[in-house]
Amino acid sequence: MTDAVRAALQRLTRVKGVRGAMVVDAEAGVPVASELETGVQETALAALAGSLFRRTQDASTASGFGRVRSLQLESAGGHLFVAGAGALLVVALADPAAQLGLVRMEAGRAAGELNA
Amino acid sequence: MRKEDLNRVAAALRDPMRSFVRESRVRTALLVNRSGQVLAHHGFGRGFDVTNVAALAAASHASAHALAELTGAGQWMHLHHAGKEHQLFLAPFRTRGEQLVLVAIFDKESTLGLVQLFFDRLTEAVAEIPELGSDLPDSDVAGFESDLEAGIERLLSEDDTR
Predict the structure, then answer these.
(1) Its pTM surpasses 0.95
(2) Which of B23, B110, B111, B122 would best serve as a mutation to test chain A binding (most A beta carbons within 10 A)?
(3) Domains recognised in chain B with CATH numbers
């Protein structure tokens, strides 16, 4: 894991309510690095989050909205954030009560830095 | 695999293969055994010769297996080749009866991660299939060629109805 990736993941997982985070290769849908709780299926999460981001990107393009910066999936057990700006995606898992604005901001910042 | 077992096995593999292709979004997927016999095929086969792909996949598996033994790497997990337009994924897995190789060809509609994820699910589903039990006899030398052709014939007849 490079220092930049490690630092991005640590900053993200320090946000209150964040359960884990990972960096995913956007084209291959495979994990690059992660800090996840035990029990989270890392490779499945990378593949499905990557696919979700790609599909959302297609929908956004078809709608004429252009490039997707981030997406947020809300479910009963928590929130999934995916942020991307190029070859790498940043995925964050957060509790329902997490500071969502902060999580989104940190995920977007990490994606921007890693893809710079 | 003997000609008389092939149709039974192919029918049992149809649903798991269909699910794999649909969920992983690959363009086409083949299941071949080490002899290059095609046990299942699903997806778009146009644009390339399926039987050649099967034969080359079996050969590639044999070469990779030998290379893995030579270098002490043991069993190889999968082979992935990323081309400009298409990507190829080859992965061997063991059933109760014999070792099979999945050959999947995909484009920008899928990713390596998705293919790997649903490959794992495919192997679990195939492991449950009783038709691929350990009591399946291998082809004998005399019947090998006709059994190999049976896989090709079945494939061509499926293409006609697809």
Answers:
(1) no
(2) B111
(3) 3-161 (3.30.450.30)
